[in-house]
Amino acid sequence: MEASSLVALPIVLALELSPGEKPGRLTLSRDDAAELAALAAADLHALVPDVAQGRLAMAGALFDAVELLRPGFPVWATLDELARRVPRGHLDNVVAFGTHEGHMPAQPLEPEAAYADGPMRLLPLSLLAPEELAEELASRLEVELVGRGEAGARTADWLMRTLGVRLEHARYLSRNDLLAMTCVQYEHVNLAALWELLECALLTPYREESTLSARGLALSYADGKVRVQSPADWVAAQPGEPAQRAHDLAGIVFELRQYAALLQAHGLELDISSAGAQATETGPGFLLETFGAPEPAYGEAQLYAHEAPGLGVVAVTLAQRGENGRARVLAHGYPLQPRALGPLAATLAERYALPAELHALGRILLDDAGRLGAPAQPLH
Fold it and tell me: 134 and which of 75, 129, 220, 260 could share a cystine (Cβ 3.0–4.6 Å)?
């Protein structure tokens, strides 16, 4: 049977680690991967005997869910591509890919150390099924894995001995199961809006999606990117006293930082949507909106750091002062990572030919109209 007539059915072997446990390695050698793949094939065959008519492929690597759930599903796509190159009948139609001289056969199959500390490790598998059986096999796997997907005792024992960890559970999931599980996890921590965007990017990337975060920040997905409403635009539209609005803005930036970190982990770009800006851009760990060039009628431009307890600098405003202390805002920047403040200040300083000195405000400063602004009087 030609590999091109095989339909890929994505599966994952999910390892729930006991508290405090961490595997000593994230990848398996070729020999170890082959042993585990044979055990997995036996487990799946016991659940759905017809899997023997397909080609089971495994990547001997331990991933976090954020690494597997990325647009285009690059880990599974790479695994499928490698498996299709192997002649049918090779190794009883079970193929495994592990490390050779410390490296996996393709970069997408290399787990990232940054995501290695989660309580669940995921080994990707793919069943390449004959086209005429694919739909039925997919349906049966979905049913059987939900109900009886625990890995066999031999498989669980092999995993614990080889990885040197204790496991609470080891079970097989379809990719749909993994998607559903991740959805529940994000909804549980008030990130349902993030999941709406991510699900669209993963399953229907040709569509557009719009939503609001739990705190009311507008977000949208289109053309492979997520765009987020400018925090300055958001706070300008809020009712209430300035102190409350400043507090709410800090909460919005905290939420935005959560979104930014998770979107990056899932391989999605984040951009900013600003109603009045001439230009917007994404830098290394920050978002920036700019409103125009300095005007000679105003004073020298300076950088002001808006601060909030527990969050540090939540925004940087570049502004000039004019008559009667009027401020003319040239840009707002939002550091989304701890190390992004320096690059953000340096970017503005270079672009506007001014010192990269940040004038700390000690608070979030809003002007009389409730907009993110700059002080009316010089800071000493």
Answer: 129
